[in-house]
Design goal:
Helices cover 12% and strands 35% of the residues. By secondary structure, it is mainly β. Bound molecules: flavin mononucleotide (FMN). One of its GO terms (molecular function) is oxidoreductase activity, acting on the CH-NH group of donors, NAD or NADP as acceptor.
Length: 208
């Protein structure tokens, strides 16, 4: 029966050429996560199952689908750094997602410079205009509605240090519209870039 809605139960398949989930929940901000392994090897990888979850203390998190190097390093050291991915850094961000073995430093792979952090041992991406130094708060193995463990881990951390390039501040206010932040869309290759014309303003209604 044709209706004006395509309905599906994900457990039974989506019935479309591509799974639309990522295209619908998108564009998503990118958690470009740098870590240092217990043996000192640096690691860098993008995660678009990423967001901020609290103001005070500031908490951010990303989902590792499978036990990846970033997750293992954060389990071992309790620390990570989030870096802002911008249009000039898009290709380097993409290069850093290579499924390289743990002994490979993705900073070298992507031609990026590890910058010293102030509080944590994990490095910043020096070329990125914004970095958050983070301490792990919780690592939660995700479950299905039936309580079955998935192979996905939600990694949450408290932001304990914030680096912002002065060029990102206009009269002291962070300039999202001018940031050239990139976001992940759906499909194998879609990204979006924040541009000033994408901005609109709306205040919350007063109540009553
Ligand atoms: C834009 C982008 C977003 C990604 N988002 C995720 C994600 O949310 N979760 C995930 O597990 N992998 C994600 N990946 C794939 C990882 O970056 C990739 O598996 C990487 O090799 C993991 O690196 P690591 O083992 O050094 O942590 C993404 C890749 C790209 C390019």
């Amino acid at each position: 029966m044709m209706t004006d809605r395509h309905f599906y139960e994900p457990a039974q398949g989506h019935g479309l050429p591509h799974d639309p989930l990522n295209a619908i929940i998108g564009p998503r901000p990118i958690g470009w996560i740098s870590t240092r392994a217990a043996n000192g090897v640096l690691n860098l990888a993008p995660y678009s199952f990423f967001n901020a979850f609290n103001y005070t203390p500031p908490l951010i998190g990303f989902s590792s689908i499978g036990r990846k190097d970033s997750l293992r390093n954060i389990e071992a050291t309790g620390e990570f750094v989030w870096n802002l991915a911008t249009r000039p850094l898009a290709e380097a961000m993409n290069a850093s997602c290579a499924a390289a073995p743990p002994e490979v430093d993705e900073f070298q792979l992507a031609g990026l410079t590890p910058g010293a952090s102030r509080i944590v041992g994990a490095p910043r991406v020096e070329e990125s205009p914004v970095s958050f130094e983070c301490r792990r708060t919780q690592i939660i193995r995700l479950q299905s509605a039936a309580g079955v463990d998935t192979d996905t881990w939600l990694v949450l951390g408290e932001v304990v240090g914030v680096h912002i390039a002065q060029s990102m501040l206009r009269d002291g206010i962070y300039d999202t519209a001018g940031s050239q932040t990139i976001l992940r869309g759906g499909g194998p290759a879609d990204y979006f870039e924040i541009t000033p014309d994408a901005l609109f303003r709306m205040r919350r209604p007063a109540y009553p």
